[in-house]
Amino acid sequence: MSESGDISEFGYIMELLARGKVTIKNIERELICPACKELFTHPLILPCQHSICHKCVKELLLMLDDSFNDVGSDNSNQSSPRLRLPSPSMDKIDRISRPGWKRNSLTPRTTTFPCPGCEHDVDLGERGINGLFRNFTLETIVERYRQAARAATAIMCDLCKPPPQESTKSCMDCSASYCNECFKIYHPWGTVKAQHEYVGPTTNFRPKILMCPEHETERINMYCELCKRPVCHLCKLGGNHSNHRVTTMSSAYKTLKEKLSKDIDYLIGKESQVKSQISELNLLMKETECNGERAKEEAVTHFEKLFEILEERKSSVLKAIDASKKLRLDKFQTQMEEYQGLLENNGLVGYAQEVLKETDQSCFVQTAKQLHLRIQKATESLKSFRPAAQTSFEDYVVNTSKQTELLGELSFFSSGIDVPEINEEQSKVYNNALINWHHPEKDKADSYVLEYRKINRDEEMLSWNEIEVCGTSKVISDLESNCNYAFRVRAYKGSICSPCSRELILHTPPAPVFSFLFDEKCGYNNEHLLLNLKRDHVESRAGFNLLLAAERIQVGYYTSLDYIIGDVGITKGKHFWAFRVEPYSYLVKVGVASSDKLQEWLRTPRDTVSPRYEQDSGHDSGSEDTCFDSSQPFTLVTIGMKKFFIPKSPTSSNEPENRVLPMPTSIGVFLDYDKGKVGFYDMDHMKCLYERQVDCSHTMYPAFALMGSGGIQLEEPVTAKYLEYQETM
Predict the structure, then answer these.
(1) End-of-domain residue from the set 401, 432, 458
(2) Is 414 inside any structural domain?
(3) pLDDT score of 681
(4) Both ends of the chain: CA-CA distance in Å?
(5) Cα dihedral sign, 34-121-139-225
(6) How many CB atoms lie under 10 A from the CB of residue 291?
(7) At 106, is the pLDDT very low, low, confident or very high (cuts 50, 70, 90)?
(8) DSSP β-ladder status, 574-581 and 710-714
(9) CB burial class (10 A; 0-12, 13-18, 19+) of residue 464?
(10) Is residue 433 left, alpha or beta, with left meaning phi > 0 and alpha meaning psi from -120 to 50?
């Protein structure tokens, strides 16, 4: 970089400082090492793209190694990278930089440590510190900042005899500063040194060409898009990046510079918006403070009237109000600090603008990526603005109208609106969720707000989704499969809001709902089965026809099953469907069957007079106990007499008391065609009752069979039309 270029960039910084665009305080935040909390000195770029002083990396490795060797030592208590790092001896520090050191050679073996910037573990690999890039762009900006900060502080000549003179030039090839006389002596005309590059006085000397840390004689000339770092051609040919996608340095330079420039322009253009939102937050904080104090005063007034009885309750209510106010103010304060940070990001903008002046492509690329991500994160919060808390304290109005004997259960007044209660019996989840609730008629609300959110498997709660409802029921769609959801509702009357109802937890089916109807053509026996017009309910009419055939009944005779299947087949994916078995049913079989097995059942004449024939699972009963582990092209379970019978299994107890369960109100079937697995669920609790492998080499169909009196009702999908029908009923 030429001397005139340095002077021009330095002047630009001073111009920004003078105009107030970038303050010394703001830009300094970007130039502080997260470990030592001081200005960067020879910063290195870690694998996570954060920078840290060269000396701090060594100290971290030493401290972690000392902690590993001596858990009880004092050093083990100082291993946090957020603490001010003590300075170990230079002898220890030098040992870390030596290549090829082993354990027990007085050098630490630790190469993994938490980054002080992001607190994620970073692994330096086999080369350790030697494999890290030096952040020359950041180093140059730090040096420029040092000069602006100390202003008149001069850089002295490195070659003068004491006392040294003030330097006028710095040689980038010699890495030294000279006064005029010394420069003439050490750079005489007509010699090679006369061709050296010199700049204004500086203490920041960096190489003209960025070299690869893994191949020290090779120049950086490519950029690895996977690892987000510059590489040389040897890294690509046979090194760690041989199978990675790389691009030219000029292309990476151009792309990152364009992205960074656009983000900087966007962030600068939103300064007025940030200031406006900060002003709004200030007003909301004042309103919250005022409403909170007003709520306290009203509470104190009510408690004074019943002081003798309510002294103990008074303290707890005031604490609750203060806690709520503090929580809200803390949220507003945190939110305001976040937006204040966006204003202070002018320092980040200033730093980014300085990075844009970097002309060396390699140096720019190694710095710009992480900076680009930071600026993107800063811009995301500008796209939507929502206050972090509510200012209203209406839920904290104390109710003094209750009778004296009820004061022991005193709680915050619900503003005259009782809490609505979700009706668990009428609420269900299938393809969608149907939530019903009731509210006393005398407290009929103007509207309700239904809230729901997904509960992660680690019990982590996500933010609530809100839907305004005029009635007392709502269908919620687009819920994820096999997830727990929490639902609650609150009532509104004018601007008054009731507290939220007790939460209802529902579990969604393990797969998308499979829609089908009973097939009235394939195998349907209209003499024994009665199918309704909607084809979603079938009933077995055992009786008169059986009596007409009574003269054929002999010893060992088994009444045959009447099959009916779904009108849609399954050839891939995961599917779930549900149905209800009528409580009066004598024997019903439900499950899945392949197309070829159904043809066998529905077309092959049955030997109904054979004492060995039992249509228990669609095959000869004599072989039932021998096919536990075989993968059959069908699976049917038996339901009847208000019981659910679990098939025999070699892996569990086959005692009758362990195989017989109460019949669930609604039963679900889950078929994973690709994995060849079928499961049967209790829909009330979405609990799997029985699961086994099934051969899915052919098209699979929902299959049902009935014997004697019985009925099956397919579960109706939950839709808005279904909701209207329920309300009419």
Answers:
(1) 401
(2) no
(3) 95
(4) 83
(5) negative
(6) 18
(7) very low
(8) antiparallel
(9) middle
(10) beta
Which residues are 714's β-sheet partners? 579
Cβ–Cβ under 8 Å, residues 333 and 285: yes
Tokens of 408: 């022991």
Report the distance separating Cα 574 and Cα 514, nearest Å. Answer: 9
Token pair belonging to 242: 């041989």
**H/E stretch holding 581:** strand 574-581
Angle, helices 346-356 vs 361-380, to 10°: value is 150
User: Looking at the DSSP assignment, which residues form a beta bridge with residue 449?
Assistant: 468, 490
Nearest to 536 by CA among 562, 570, 564: 564
Element (H, E) at 701: strand 700-707
Q: Which CATH number belongs to the domain containing residue 17 in this structure? A: 3.30.40.10
Cα dihedral 110, 114, 120, 125, rounded to 10, equals -30
SS3 string of 639-671?
Answer: EECCEEECCCCCCCCCCHHHHEEECCCCEEEEE
Phi, psi values for residue 611, rounded to 5°: -70, -15
Name the domain boundary from 366, 401, 436.
401
Pairing of strands 412-413, 574-581: unpaired
Q: How many CB atoms lie within 10 A of CB 100?
A: 7
Provide CB contacts within 8 A for 42, sequence distance 6+.
53, 54, 55, 134, 139
Q: What are 222-239's pLDDT values in tens digits? A: 888 888 888 888 888 877
Structural domain containing residue 272? 251-401
pLDDT at 193 over 50: yes
pTM of the model: 0.44
